[in-house]
Write a structure and sequence with these properties.
389 residues; 33% helix; formyl-coa transferase, domain 3; 6-stranded parallel β-sheet; 3-stranded antiparallel β-sheet; alpha/beta; Rossmann fold; 2 domains
């Protein structure tokens, strides 16, 4: 953290686990916030790549000593983030009602799948379940095939971590006017419902008549992927007439540009474009369309990103285990942090009200697991952490 970053001076206690909460606090840390992960117990460790730029301590909140130390840190904190099922934070003494009496300026965020109330609030779930309840999963995938989730991007990261970060920043901004904090109830189902605003409005119309059909589902000839001669793919997004005209011309298909928005022409256009793109390999097509407004790009696999000129131009240090800190700021740059330097965590904990003796008792190794569970649960334990049954 440097004093020139946007969230410099903001202190965050992160009690969350798994993916959505740690992604939220990673975003805050990238912007300069001092983030302290509070671990302990058997609740699962944050995903390793989401731990960058954070400090780690272990507190047993089921003990009076653990709660006392948390209370002292809360006195100096700006934000507390948790991802327990509703009611658990209160049982641990980490709920907003109690903590706001210690620090009225505290912004607390509860990040859950279903929210703090409602019939499903106490149910367990994962990204795929939240997509299903929010009506998003029912729009993904091919007609006649099972709905297919887009990894866990939409609920965990978009409707979860990003929504929570947005809510926290809004509450911090409002605190500047009112002088008091508030509780943010960030539910992944709610986040997905919001992100589906346009698809919901289009549902049942020619734009999105049903799952697997419509302009943006990958079935329209002007908006889909095409296999190339080498078995790799290009993505075509030539929706507007001028873009499709550029595509048609640059493929050498003549000056008579067909109506690419007429569904009756879709089968013939699809066969034509499939045949043309299969005639050359992916990188030849990428070079052919370089500088063009035909909206044709290579479909890159993750392992290719570090060599792509656009990615490297904007993010020279890009690596799959070190995604960029975003967005860009003109004066207060975001920056991905690393493991704390020796003594750095103790100094940060002092700003949270802990003494050096307190810090010595609670500081956890940065690479230590904060629990016995990992996520996804299919991940095999590292040999050094495997236990005998």
């Amino acid at each position: 953290m440097t004093s020139s970053q946007a969230l410099a001076g903001i202190r965050v206690l992160d009690l969350s686990r798994l993916a959505p909460g740690p992604y939220c606090s990673m975003l805050l840390a990238d912007l300069g916030a001092d983030v302290v992960m509070v671990g302990g117990g058997r609740t699962g460790a944050p995903i390793p790549v989401l731990r960058r730029g954070k400090h780690a301590i272990e507190l047993d909140l089921k003990t009076p000593q653990g709660r006392s130390l948390l209370d002292r840190m809360v006195e100096h904190a700006d934000v507390l983030l948790e991802s327990f099922r509703p009611g658990v934070a209160a049982r641990l003494g980490a709920d907003h009602e109690r903590l706001s009496r210690i620090n009225p300026r505290l912004v607390s965020c509860s990040l859950t799948g279903y929210g703090q109330d409602g019939p499903l609030a106490q149910r367990a779930g994962h990204d795929i379940n939240y997509l299903a309840i929010a009506g998003a999963l029912g729009t993904f995938g091919a007609t006649g095939a099972p709905p297919t989730p887009p990894l866990n991007l939409l609920a965990d990261f978009g409707g979860g971590g990003l929504l929570a970060a947005f809510g926290i920043l809004a509450a911090l901004h409002e605190r500047e006017r009112s002088g008091v904090g508030q509780h943010v109830d960030a539910a992944m189902v709610d986040g997905v419902l919001s992100m589906m605003a346009m698809p919901f409005a289009d549902w049942g119309t020619p734009t999105l008549p049903r799952r697997g059909a419509g302009a943006l589902t990958g079935t329209m000839p002007a908006y889909r992927t095409y296999e190339c001669a080498d078995g790799r793919y290009v993505a075509v997004g030539a929706l507007e007439p001028r873009f499709f005209a550029a595509l048609w011309s640059e493929l050498g298909l003549g000056d008579d540009v067909p109506d690419h928005l007429d569904p009756a022409r879709f089968p013939g256009l699809t066969r034509t474009l499939e045949a043309v793109f299969r005639g050359k390999d992916r990188d030849t097509w990428a070079a052919h369309f370089a500088g063009s407004d035909a909206c044709v790009t290579p479909v890159l696999e993750p392992g290719e990103l570090a060599a792509h000129p656009h990615v490297t131009a904007r993010h020279p240090d890009f690596a799959l285990d070190r995604v960029p800190a975003v967005p860009r700021f003109s004066r207060t740059p975001a920056a991905p942090g690393g493991a704390p330097a020796p003594g750095e965590t103790a100094a940060v904990l002092a700003s949270f009200g802990l003494t050096p003796d307190d810090a010595a008792r609670v500081v956890a190794p940065h690479d230590a697991a904060a629990g016995d569970l990992s996520w996804p649960p299919i991940t095999r334990p590292h040999p050094h952490t495997e236990r005998n049954s």
